[in-house]
Amino acid sequence: MKRNIFNILIGGPAGSGIESAGMILGHCLKNAGASVVVSNEIMSLIRGGHNFNRVRFSFESEVLCHDDKVDLVVGFDKASLEHLADIVSGGVFVYDSDAIHESDLANITGIKNYSMRTFGLPLKKASSAVSGYINTLAIGVIAKILNLPVEIFTDYLKDKFAAKGEEVVSQNIKAFDAGFGLTESIFPLCEKCVTTKSMLLNGNDAICIGAVKSGCKFVAEYPMTPSSSILHTIAAWSKDYGIVVKHAEDEIAAMNMIVGAGFAGARSLTATSGGGFALMTEAVSLAGCSETPCVVVDAQRPGPSTGLPTRTEQGDLRQVLHAGQGDFPKLVMAPGDLRESFEMGFYAFNYAEKYQIPVFILTDKYLSETYVSCDELETADDRATMRIERGKIVSEVAVTGAVGAIGAATSVTEAGAISAAVGDFKRYADSMDGVSYRTLPGTKYGEHVATSYEHDEASFMLEDVDTRNQQMRKRMRKSEALLKELPEPFVINGDGEIVVLEMAGGADSASASLDILFVGFGSTKPILMEAVKELGTAGGKRKPIKAGILMIKYLAPFQSEAVKKILNKAMRVGARIVGVEQNFSGQLCGLICEKTGIEIKEKILKYDGRQMTAGTILEWVSKSGI
Description:
The protein is of the alpha/beta class. The longest helix is centred in the last third of the chain and has 21 residues, at 465-485.
């Protein structure tokens, strides 16, 4: 039997190397030329509980996301029996015969009602006889079942464990060989593998790559799942790229550190999740008042409070939008895949410095930690267009007898001297775009105070009405300028191609019709793309359904007019507007209603901490009467 897309699940107790097994399998499949997605589900326990890893791949088509339905399950513990309901007809369940017995299978209702093959193998006993690496042994079992070339795995194991010495390499290869010899080939998936140079990255990795390319020079973070790997990754790269990395004592310190680093002229970054971000908000407001550039990544997980620390959700949108006391401009953007994570990881620093604001990258556990194969992040166009833009930084302040007028200068590439009287540099001078010139510490005659108090143009603390009004209007004017620069939103299909919502042949043009427009943000993008692809393909008695996707990438400042225009066009061509979010209250739909006046009444919401699948979308559509 040959399948186009194949899904493997490896399950077992925490501490048995489930995550490592999934990653090794994912890398080997990627090296063999497959498109791969590796997603991990773990309990928030140091040891104990049941964890599992899914590896979904194809040698024939691109795999965008995970799926709950699996073809092959390898279970190390009795808790793995919970996955039997997810095995497709014709699938295989391999289990450790020392942990699960035939009587356990016999007691499960419905297990014999469909075609599923079960194999009890002495996984733990066999691994103990060679090295104890039950996870590597399980990879050998999987490689044999899938009829995959041995050398793909042995070559990777040699490379992965080389730093740990020959003994560790030898033990892992023995474990793999032992597993390979335990079973038989069932699915001839890979008749001829082609070695590739593609990468296997998660969203956090892609953000880090973008940040390094953008010249990030200071990272302060207190580890918090699922953002922690940003700290680990940048720390590992810090010597190569000249980055100062500080493991802060808490989130409050981390946020204050990056504000200080931003004032000093370093491109600075911190990362956290909702609970840690709650502690940062006073310093976020400090960045807003002092107009200090910095970048914050919020990798969302379910709340309230500690919630589900190792699961996923999109419940922090309102928290980030309204973080910090008072009104001040900020940029909130939400990547939906690796490519966008890389781009936003780069451009976040440009926006932060050009507009002298805090910038937030809103991601979540699924995007942060799910590994996806990709050929490259940086294209030839990127190498030609991605340029570091630092904004209005003045390298020289010329001394004059009177205070120089900075005036209405708007170009972010202007250089040269700014005139000022000694000790009277106008750090917060009014300007048409709301952005004032700034100097870095050590700039002669560019001394100024970056204060959390309201202040005048020269940064002196004042409380008069005119000063307050002038500075508030100046700061908020940045949002108007920023809106003009942000890329316009657009509708895409399941292949990521832009869909033009225009009546090509008049009001009754069938070619211009759209049955559904899904609206979402962040990590729902690959899920929606797979669902829309499937909807567009006729199957059985089902007719094709024409659907589009509107991903809201920029959440503040909100592109109200552009979004409103798209939604109105979609409704005019007959589309039902459906919000898709990983939270309880439909926070994005509420924001859209607030900003455009358009209420999205139909919603697909999931808030159990598990990422929805394309199947979730397809099931909703089948019940919707479309």
